[in-house]
Design goal:
Hypothetical protein af1432, 14 helices, 5 strands
């Protein structure tokens, strides 16, 4: 296992050398930077496991550095220890507000430094393991999709459109991230379905359709052990529920269906209509929307979600261009 990598940031070279020697004495790999701007460059190139930074520095101070790192998706989980004066209450409060994970008073006491670094690295290791488990799950979702050439890119398009709707209606960053994850994982339960059924070009038998209907609950069971995926479980389980209660697996109706699942349900069908399948060609945007409008009038989809989706697609017409070759002749739609 590689030794943990720690980035030490301070504009005083003497202080940097002291902290570097202390940490190297415990076997850590230490990289250094002398201001916040340089630290950002080092974070991008070196990917440290922890950042130890002073507050007061030229160009970009420690508070600004912390804010930048914690505000960026790829670096927000890197633990940050901020060095402050013993009585610097204001900077501690500002550090908490910008997302600092811990504080050390200057001058640093070695035993306290070691204890705090070790504690935060332990948490970072657990977080990395969790992310690794998530990565396996997402890779599994992609592998399932790759089994059928006609559904290639389906989950990416569903997740992207679902997130865009969330952003359009003003959902929080966390909520839109969950929509994106749910869009990627919504069909992961299909791993339990035979390829002969998944890739069947014709109409499914009643028995085959019953097997298809198991995939939302199977998907939820696959993802349930990961606590980080808990917010997306309702999307995975409920994306085939319908507003009038005619869907599956629970037969939920109206607002009993979680909003994220109502969003993914609509986008899932729109994407399927816009994309080529084994049993039909792709459909143009206008025709797909006409079907969704008709189905919504029959209470299959949330009318408010459809309204916002239609507004968004009219406001951002470039979103209509992300699909495959359009069909050339009329056909009877077959829903996923």
């Amino acid at each position: 296992m590689p030794e943990p990598k720690i980035l030490v940031v301070d504009d005083e070279k003497t202080v940097v050398e002291i902290h570097k020697k202390l940490l190297e004495k415990r076997g850590y790999h230490v990289i250094v930077a002398y201001n916040g701007a340089e630290a950002l460059t080092k974070v991008a190139s070196e990917e440290p496991d922890l950042v130890l930074t002073d507050v007061s520095m030229p160009e970009m101070d420690g508070l600004q550095l912390c804010e930048r790192l914690k505000g960026t998706k790829t670096t927000r989980l890197i633990p940050i220890i901020m060095l402050t004066a013993m009585d610097d209450f204001d900077n501690k409060i500002r550090g908490i507000e910008t997302g600092a994970d811990d504080f050390l008073a200057k001058p640093v006491r070695p035993r306290e430094l070691y204890a705090r670094v070790q504690s935060l690295l332990r948490i970072k290791n657990l977080t990395d393991n969790l992310e690794s488990a998530e990565t396996v799950i997402f890779s599994l979702a992609n592998a399932i999709e790759a089994k059928d050439v006609f559904t290639k890119g389906h989950t990416d398009r569903v997740s992207s459109l679902a997130r865009r709707i969330g952003e359009y209606i003003g959902m929080s960053e966390t909520e839109t991230e969950n929509l994106e994850k749910g869009g990627i994982l919504h069909d992961i339960g299909k791993i339990g379905i035979r390829d002969t059924i998944l890739n069947k070009p014709g109409k499914l038998t009643d028995e085959e359709f019953e097997e298809i209907k198991k995939h939302p609950e199977t998907g939820e069971k696959i993802c349930r052990p990961l606590r980080s995926l808990e917010p997306v479980l309702p999307i995975i389980k409920c994306h085939h529920e319908r507003f009038d209660g005619s869907g599956y697996p629970l037969g939920l109706a109206g607002e009993q269906i979680p909003l994220p699942a109502r969003i993914v349900a609509l986008v899932d069908v729109y994407e399927a209509l816009r994309s080529k399948r084994a049993y039909r060609d792709a459909m143009p945007h206008a025709e797909a929307m006409a079907i969704l409008l008709r189905e919504t009038a029959e209470s299959k989809f949330d009318p408010e979600v459809l309204k916002k989706f239609e507004e968004m697609m009219n406001f951002e017409p470039e979103l209509r261009q992300t699909f495959g070759k359009l069909r050339k002749k009329p056909h009877t739609p077959v829903f996923p």
